[in-house]
Amino acid sequence: MNDKSYIFASESPRRKALIKLLDRSFVFTPSKSDEKLDRELSFEEAIMDIALQKALSVSGEYHGRLVLGADTLVVLNKDVFGKPKNEEQAYEMLSALSGETHSVITGVAMVRDGQHKLFYSKANVTFDKMSDQEIRAYIQSEEPFNKAGAYAIQGLAAKHITKIEGDYYAVMGLPLAKLYQHIKAFENNTLF
To answer: Across the strands, what pairs with 110?
Structure first.
């Protein structure tokens, strides 16, 4: 392992693809956290807390290294939409999102030797009104699985998204511009 590489507590293929755009060396390792959402916190605080749980779950193995954690939350009318466990849950989520505007919040934690920096980015996403047939066809593509809110904005769901306000990359699962600025601050010794 390159001693200049950063550690990312994630196995998400989407985040792996996105992080390459930052032109830095990253080593990916699975998070060991339970990812419990604290309902007493605001949605923004709660998702940053989960990102911190992920980073802390592996940071002990990487003394002196910068460890990242990230997680994404989909919220509609104060209801949280996680990853669907089956087709029925995917159908319920997509039916609820159909014709509505929801929020997507991605929290990021940067940890090194007990110090941490947390931040989040968000966007509001509007879906057109999808027919029952369109929802079922999308579920059959299997794209909704393993994705918060049961959709991938950069995938087949794109044809149903009529508006996005905010950070597109927060919806994809990693707010690249904010993360890049924080990494540069770390490299300039001004993050912690």
So the answer is: 68, 117
Domains of the chain, first to last = 6-187 (3.90.950.10)
List of residues 6+ apart from 111 with CB closer than 8 A: 52, 55, 56, 59, 66, 67, 68, 69
Per residue in 94-108, pLDDT (tens digit) is: 999 999 999 999 999
The closest alpha carbon to 78, from 42, 128, 118, belongs to 42
Catalytic residue, candidates 3, 71, 132, 167: 71
Asked whether 41 and 75 are in contact (CB, 8 A), the reply is: no
Among residues 133, 110, 103, 79, the alpha carbon closest in space to that of 7 is found at: 110
Please confirm, yes or no, whether 71 is among the known catalytic residues.
yes
CA 121/CA 16 separation, integer angstroms: 18
Distance CA 156, CA 192 (A): 40
- Count of beta carbons in the 10 Å neighbourhood of residue 13: 10
Give the tens place of pLDDT for each residue, 37-51: 898 999 999 999 999
DSSP-derived letter for residue 157 is G
Which tokens sit at 125? 């996403």
